[in-house]
Amino acid sequence: MPDELSDILDSAIYKEIASQALYEAAQKKTQDPATRALLKELAKEELGHSQRLKKLKEKGFPQHDWHRKQVPDLKISEHLTGPDTIEGAGIQDTLIFAMKKEQQAVDFYSKMMGLMRDEKAKQLCESLVHEELRHKLRLEILYDDLFYGED
């Protein structure tokens, strides 16, 4: 496996594990059952992501058709301010925090894609950008439903 590809996989795995740990710790700091359930779901997703990336690192990089559909960006989180931490946060602040975290991941992998020389490493970055955008979209739709939806 080329060094760039291995490096980006290591970085992505680390980021997923760190996010999982953050969401698990935050579960213990909230009294709100809905927020706790959301944090549990987010931690489980991050665990799944890190496991898939570890498997990819172990088994190698499959040949894929890397052309993907465009993921809509509702840009909800870009217009919201939220906390720098989710300790003790309610559902709204937790969603804002998670949306912004997904956007940070999109930005990180987008920048990394521009720095990579290895084509498979670039493709992996592109795939990670796409996945993070899908996560952000799901969170934005949930936020929209909860806080802007019709009564």
Q: Could you name the ranges where pLDDT drops below 50 across 5 or more consecutive residues?
A: none
CATH fold name: Ferritin
Oligomer: single chain
Distance from N terminus to C terminus (CA atoms, Å) equals: 53 Å
Portion in strands:
under 5%
Q: Pairing-aware structural class of the strands and helices?
A: mainly alpha
- DSSP summary: helix tally: 4
Morphology call:
globular
> Mean pLDDT, as a whole number?
88
Compact overview of the structure:
This protein has helices at 3-27, 33-59, 91-115, 119-147. The protein is mainly α.
Please, could you describe this protein's structure?
This protein has 151 residues and is mostly helical. It has helices at residues 3-27, 33-59, 91-115, 119-147. The protein has one domain (3-60, 74-147): Ferritin, core subunit, four-helix bundle (Ferritin). Helices cover 70% and strands 0% of the residues. Helix 2 (33-59) runs parallel beside helix 3 (91-115). The radius of gyration is 16 Å and the shape is globular. 30% of the residues are buried.
